[in-house]
Amino acid sequence: MNESSATTARRARACPRASRWDGHGTLASALTVVRTLRPKGVFAVTTLGIVILSAFVGNALWQVDPSFQQLNARLLPPLGVGYDGAYHILGTDHLGRDLLARTLVGARVSLLVALLAVGVAAIVGVGVGLVSGVFGGRVDHVFMTCVDVQLALPFTLLAICIAAITGPSLVNVILVLTATGWVAFARVVRSQVLSLRQMDFIAAAYGLGCGPGRLLLRYLLPNCASTIIVIASFAAARMIVAEATISFLGVGVPSWIPSWGSMISDGRTYLPVAWWVAIIPGSAITLSVIAINLLGDWLRDRLDPRLASPSDLVGILRGKGQGRADAERA
Fold first, then answer.
1. Domains of the chain and CATH, by start
2. What are the Cα distances from residue 227, in Å, to 88, 181, 298?
3. N or C: which end of the chain has fewer CB within 10 A?
């Protein structure tokens, strides 16, 4: 009876402690992340947050049709006023269309393309890298040959060929970016898996009869997660630039959909007299790419202890220690 009562009491004390640990642990982790944000991390998060909010909420605040043309208000400078009394904060283009409204829609297009392209490329590339690294042999040879063939295909030429066959389309842009973006995931994940295969816990899993599927999902994929997150952050920046490139050439999204690349293409002719038509979308691309790259640098430093600074490590250890202390106190 005494042993049973003691066991029941321990379980009763453990239940509230487990529930409180989750809350305190989450709060401690959030505070640790905030403390380890350096100026470049703050700049990256702030800029990227503004871009995301502008893309998905901006048109609700600035209710101007991005395709509405006013030829009597063409090439108005920033803070210009049209003949109808309407303000144009970023000016107008050569057809009198509001640049702020078009920039907001272009941000939505760029972020949507980058998100979908990176997501599909990550699924394909991570799958190829895991399978190639685990099975090796002929499977690895076949997949790596496909990688080499893909690297030999010029990105711009591939985009032009697809656009010439099927016509400009948002789906085609995503397919082109996916077809050229999965290679980076596959090569890095494969090298990571080859390194992990030499470790003792993988040999122990093999010895205990762990099958290939469980080995991939239970042991290898979680240990590659931090690398995949960092690659995805840098790949998103590349996707934004690539989408702007093919839209600039006229083989990206359709012409009736505003995009940063097509806006630069429309404004390059008017650079001597109306610099803002091309400079504003170009600045949006620059700020977005810089913010994503800085966020990728911070994620790499955060997720890889070998690259973390002593202050970051101290903050991480303090956050974990505070979480354990809160759990014990509870």
1. 42-66+98-309 (1.10.3720.10)
2. 44, 15, 13
3. N
**Backbone dihedral angles phi then psi of residue 92, each to the nearest 5 degrees:** -130, 165
Pairing of strands 80-81, 87-88: antiparallel
CA 251 to the chain's CA centroid: 23
CA atoms within 13 A on the CB side of 73: 21
- Burial code (b: 16+ CB inside 10 Å, e: under 16) for 56-95 equals eebbeeeebebeeebeebbbbeeebebeeeeebebbbbbe
Q: What are phi and psi of 98, to 5 degrees?
A: -70, 125
Give the chain's radius of gyration (CA, Å).
26
The residue behind tokens 């600039």 is 248
| Residues forming a β-bridge with 98 | 92
How many whole angstroms separate alpha carbon 264 and alpha carbon 271?
Answer: 10
Q: Which two tokens stand for residue 158?
A: 């591939």
Identify the residue whose tokens are 């909010």. Answer: 53
What lies within 8 Å, CB to CB, of 64 at 6+ separation is 86, 98, 100, 101
For the four alpha carbons of 144, 224, 235 and 255, in that order, the dihedral sign comes to positive
Q: How far apart are the first and last CA of the chain?
A: 27
